[in-house]
Structures are given as C-alpha cells and as structure tokens.
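#random but structural
TW: two for the price of one
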Amino acid sequence: MDNIVTMMSVGGGLAVLAALAGGLTLGFERLLPRWSRKKRVFWAAAVAVLAPMAVVFGAYVRDNSVVDTAPFIIGLFVLTAITLVLGLIVCLPAAWFVDRRMGEVRPIRARVENDAEHGRPIDV
C-alpha cells in the first residue's frame, strides 16, 4: 500500500510541474506576445522547474555541512541532474505543447499605420 501511495505522490508531483509549465506558457503568451515561441517555452519550463527545486536546494544546503566536501558536492550534482531531467522531460514538452496549441487559435492581428503619440506601429 505504501508503494502505491508513493507512486501516486510522484505522479501527482510530475503532473503539477507539467501544469505549472503549461500555465506559465499561457501567461507568457498573453502578457508578453512579442516574445518568440522558443523564448516563451524556455522561460516557462525553466521557472516551472527551478521554483520548486529552489526549496529543495535550500533545504539541502542548510541541512548538510560543507566541511565534508565530497559528499556535499556529489549531492549537489545529483540535485542539479534531477532538476535538468525534470525540466527536459516534464516541463519543456508541456510548455511546448501548450504554446503550440495556443498558436493554432491565436488570432491574426491587424496593424495600424502608427501611433500618433509615440510614432511607432501598434497592434489593434
């Protein structure tokens, strides 16, 4: 029974990371429409994986002594590898999928000649 609870907890955590990446991509698409697709997807995945892992890194650094450097460095390397794997396997595909789906329904915007006040093109 404990294994089932552990597997469901891990699966739920991965789903939350994917949902966070997708939500950030959606927010970036709405709030920063001039960003390129690559930039939106990269930053959404990076923030989605680094925000929760910052707590883990902080707890690890606080609880372990730096006096014994070899195990400390190995543990830091393992945490960095886990962060990269989570970002590349969970967050990046979720962010890319949401951005691709939003690209299919994004309306084509008309351009106005220029903004008389600022002298630059604006979106309508």
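TW: number two ↓
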Amino acid sequence: MKNTLFTVYIEQDEDGVFTGSIPVLPSCHAEGKTQKEMLKNLQQVLKLCLRNVNVKEVIAAAATKPFGFMPFYPGAGAGGHCIPKDPIFLLESARENNLQFSSIKEALRTNLFVPKYIVGSIEEILDNLKLEKSVVVCGLAYKPDIEDMRDSPGFKILNEFNNRNFKISAYDPYFKKELKAKYLVENYLESLEFFVLNDLEKQLKEYNCICIVQHHTKTKFLLNRIYKNSEIPVIFDCQNQLKTNSGSKSVLMRFGNR
C-alpha cells in the first residue's frame, strides 16, 4: 500500500509525563526500504519521548557541531517586551491573510504551560517529602543582571504558587520595592501579595524550597553555597545551571532533567 502515513500517538499527562504508542502494522503496509526506515525512525522518536532525557546535555552535545547550529537552552519561559508579544502580531497578520502558523501557536501554548509544570513538579516533591508548601522564587527579572521585570516568567510562577496556596516570597538583588506596583502592571496582575526578602541566606530557613527562575552574577556564589551547605530541603533550578553536588543533602531538581 503506497503513500501510507505512519502515526505516532504521543500525549502528555497533567504531570508533564509523555506516554505514547505506535500502531502495529502488517508488513504489507511497509513496502520498500523507505517506508520501513520511516517506521523505524518513528519508533525511535517514541522511545526518546518516553525517556528521562537531560535536555541540556543533548543540546550541549549538538552544539559541538562547528557550524549550522545555535544552542538555545530551556527555561521558565520568555519575558521582556519582544519575544512574548511579537509572535502574536505575526499570528494576527497571518489570520488576516487566511494563513495558519500552528508551530507558533504551539510554542506560545507551551510557554504558557511551563510555569504550571514547574509549580506542579515542586508541589509533588514537597508532598512526597511531607513538607509544608513554602517557596522562595529567586530571580524575577526576565534576563540576567538587569532590573527589568516586564512580562517575567518569575511573576507567572509566583502567581501560580499563590493560586495553589503556597507560602510565597521572592528574592532578586535588582528588585526595587518602591516599584512593586509598576512590576505588577508590567505583568498584567491586578494584585499579588508576596514578601520580598532582603537577605536570602538569613531568611531561607523559613522555607522548604527555592525556585531559581533567573540566575544573576550577583547570586551565583550565594546559590552554590546554599546548595553545598544543604541550607534548604529542595532546590528547583529552572535554568539547569547548578552542578550536582553529591555531598549536599538538598534535593536538586532541574528543568529539562526531571
């Protein structure tokens, strides 16, 4: 049977875990070397989706190619005044011209889902450890080493924690308390009650998890010290920058390597 399309059924459950299957096809449905190779490749795709793959390691390996590849690493989401908004303008222009950009729609949908996935992962580990749901969100600026909170994934994560009744606080060396109302407007939030820590290390004992959304140069050594000295039960690194320390008693979870 020519022009047969082989379909991989891959779904993601509410916990972000991929499940899937490939229909068993009679041998007559795979005529010739090309069709057989297609089915083989589809099976490999499914196997990859069902594995706990360290995304950072995969991207780093691909980046060893000396040409034709630019690495982009996953994080808690896009922020700022360009990336979260410009694709929407493009989609609207496409709609006016009866065009569909499903890849852009899916990328935007995925970015919106990421904060829920991160918060859900933290909630699950705290429940498993029978710990109170308390967290410090570290790094509210949308990119490192600046005071710019516009459309920041840190605020989306804070809001999601709040919706799930977590005890929440935040820490960012660039956060200006007198501009909190401005930050909320920039993140489309009418209100969000959270405490801003002045000294992360001294006040950390009141919490069970630190969620690192954005790494700053100013906090690099501090966060490594907190992890090394096991100063908090759980650390979730959204940018996968902390290196595993076998001597630490803190549980280290990293986005892209569940």
